[in-house]
Amino acid sequence: SDIGSQKERVVTEEEWLQKWEMGNIGFHKEHGHPLLQKYLDVLLNGRTGLRIFFPLCGKAVEMKWLADMGHSVVGVEVSELAVKEFFSEHSLPYCEEPVPEISGAKMFQSTSGNISLYCCSIYDLSSSIVGKFDGVWDRGALVAVNPCDRQRYASLMINLVEKNSSYLLVTVSYDPNKHKGPPFYVPESEIRSLFG
Ligand code: SAH
């Protein structure tokens, strides 16, 4: 489990924006992720009306699923194109407004009010801006974060969750010398040290 070859790799925000522009988004799952269906009970734990956070959300269709179940969904995504595609592909009317605390950021909210997507870097967020969450769906998020930013990402996520929250994390396991990532290989030992 030598992750040496990926440790120094950096994917810039500009490169992510380009992936969206080019439609180079092989990570997007049109029919959603089977693991969310499988572990939905773990995420919800019998609770209703939760606040669920989608870090690095892309246009994940699972946001629509959870909103349709009556939960309130908040996502963050650097690509405005991704955010707009999400709303248009689900035929959801939305409004957009600036985020006073974050220069250049915009918040896109479904007219029904239960889906709010922040278009900015996740590192611009804090619990004073977005509040705290009861649940997190982390798929293509920790594994998409640059290895040098993992500690910062994990500390932020820990700050954004309530005490009794559930955090579903999807990772991928493979030989990191054979692919450069993302998705990056994050060994379980590292996940334990990041999240405690
Ligand atoms: N979670 C989504 C998308 C995974 S790909 C899914 O399951 O489909 C990772 C996404 O993170 C990309 O859409 C990319 O544009 C976005 N991203 C990368 N760095 C980011 C950052 N610092 N802040 C917010 N979004 C970011």
TrEMBL record:
<keyword id="KW-0963">Cytoplasm</keyword>
<dbReference type="InterPro" id="IPR025835">
    <property type="entry name" value="Thiopurine_S-MeTrfase"/>
</dbReference>
<feature type="binding site">
    <location>
        <position position="139"/>
    </location>
    <ligand>
        <name>S-adenosyl-L-methionine</name>
    </ligand>
</feature>
<feature type="binding site">
    <location>
        <begin position="121"/>
        <end position="122"/>
    </location>
    <ligand>
        <name>S-adenosyl-L-methionine</name>
    </ligand>
</feature>
<keyword id="KW-0949">S-adenosyl-L-methionine</keyword>
<dbReference type="GO" id="GO:0032259">
    <property type="term" value="P:methylation"/>
</dbReference>
<feature type="binding site">
    <location>
        <position position="77"/>
    </location>
    <ligand>
        <name>S-adenosyl-L-methionine</name>
    </ligand>
</feature>
<comment type="similarity">
    <text>Belongs to the class I-like SAM-binding methyltransferase superfamily. TPMT family.</text>
</comment>
<dbReference type="GO" id="GO:0005737">
    <property type="term" value="C:cytoplasm"/>
</dbReference>
<keyword id="KW-0489">Methyltransferase</keyword>
<protein>
    <recommendedName>
        <fullName>thiopurine S-methyltransferase</fullName>
        <ecNumber>2.1.1.67</ecNumber>
    </recommendedName>
</protein>
<feature type="binding site">
    <location>
        <begin position="16"/>
        <end position="27"/>
    </location>
    <ligand>
        <name>S-adenosyl-L-methionine</name>
    </ligand>
</feature>
<dbReference type="InterPro" id="IPR008854">
    <property type="entry name" value="TPMT"/>
</dbReference>
<dbReference type="InterPro" id="IPR029063">
    <property type="entry name" value="SAM-dependent_MTases_sf"/>
</dbReference>
<feature type="binding site">
    <location>
        <position position="56"/>
    </location>
    <ligand>
        <name>S-adenosyl-L-methionine</name>
    </ligand>
</feature>
<dbReference type="Pfam" id="PF05724">
    <property type="entry name" value="TPMT"/>
</dbReference>
<dbReference type="GO" id="GO:0008119">
    <property type="term" value="F:thiopurine S-methyltransferase activity"/>
</dbReference>
<keyword id="KW-0808">Transferase</keyword>
